[in-house]
């Protein structure tokens, strides 16, 4: 079946540091890939997505590239802010499936 | 309007109570979802409604009863819950269930505490 593996957290960084959160997936065919962010006490918000190989999703300074050869969708940001502190979920869905498959989530804390 | 709304924001109920959670979207989406999220875990799918019909029930106990009265509304009726049912309950919607490129839009959730 389909699955998503994320790097274990928590991740603690200083403001303006570089962020990478690794995400790899297992799926048959060509899934769509997503990063969702959950701020404390809130629901999930879509951060970015990519729907085919070599697509790059980007939003709010975050980027992730759909790499089919390595089955990866790593999240990066060049300079994190305190306001980026949240839990980040990598997820996939596949055509014909009603289900969104989540990774376990990575908690990011950014200190001033 | 790209918002999914959920009420109430917080709910405390006893094990003998009956209560309902409500979810609403006005984006014209025809698929709606209920998820349960425990602390420090990803959301777990409970139910999927597609075109107002229940299409997935992930073996959820019968003390949770979903209802989709119309294409904009989704309810979750709660009865005789257990303390382990305490969690954040999230509603989500997407244009069509199974659309390969469509993200799910999540509401802010209802924080449920069962005493």
**Fraction of residues in H or I helices of chain B:** under 10%
Mean pLDDT of chain A: 94
* Rg over CA atoms of chain B: 13 Å
* Total beta strands of chain B: 11
Strand-residue fraction of chain A? over 45%
Class per helix and strand makeup of chain A:
mainly beta
Oligomer: heterodimer
Summarize the structure.
The complex is a heterodimer of chains A (about 110) and B (about 120). Chain A is mainly beta.
Tell me about this structure.
The complex is a heterodimer of chains A (112) and B (115). In chain A, 0% of the residues lie in helices and 50% in strands. Chain A is mainly beta. The model of chain A has no long low-confidence stretch (mean pLDDT 94). Chain B is mostly beta strands. In chain B, 0% of the residues lie in helices and 56% in strands. In chain B, strands 2, 4, 5, 6, 9, 10 and 11 form a 7-stranded mixed sheet that branches. The model of chain B has no long low-confidence stretch (mean pLDDT 93). The chains are: A mainly beta (112), B mainly beta (115). The A-B interface holds A 31-32, 34, 36, 42-46, 49, 51, 89, 93-100, 102-105, 107 and B 4, 6, 31, 40-43, 45, 48, 50, 55-56, 90, 92, 97-109.
Features:
heterodimer; A: about 110 residues; mainly beta; six-stranded mixed β-sheet; about 0% helix; about 50% strand; globular; B: about 120 residues; seven-stranded mixed β-sheet; four-stranded antiparallel β-sheet; 11 strands
């Amino acid at each position: 079946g389909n699955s998503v593996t994320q790097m274990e957290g928590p991740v603690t960084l200083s403001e303006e540091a570089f962020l990478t959160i690794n995400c790899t997936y297992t799926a048959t065919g060509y899934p769509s890939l997503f990063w969702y962010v959950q701020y404390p006490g809130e629901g999930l918000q879509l951060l970015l997505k990519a729907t085919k190989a070599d697509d790059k999703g980007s939003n709010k300074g975050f980027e992730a590239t759909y790499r089919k050869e390595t089955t990866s969708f790593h999240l990066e940001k060049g300079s994190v802010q305190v306001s980026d502190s949240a839990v980040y979920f990598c997820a996939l869905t596949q055509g014909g499936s009603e289900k969104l498959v989540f990774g376990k989530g990575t908690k990011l804390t950014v200190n001033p | 309007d790209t918002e999914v709304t959920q009420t109430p924001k917080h709910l405390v109920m006893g094990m003998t109570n009956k209560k309902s959670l409500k979810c609403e979207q006005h984006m014209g989406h025809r698929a709606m979802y209920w998820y349960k999220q425990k602390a420090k875990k990803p959301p777990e799918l409970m139910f999927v409604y597609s075109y107002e019909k229940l299409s997935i029930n992930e073996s959820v106990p019968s003390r949770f009863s979903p209802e989709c009265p119309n294409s904009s509304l989704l309810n979750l009726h709660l009865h005789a819950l257990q303390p382990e049912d305490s969690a954040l309950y999230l509603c989500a919607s997407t244009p069509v269930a199974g659309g390969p490129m469509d993200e799910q839009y999540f509401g802010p959730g209802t924080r449920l505490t069962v005493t």
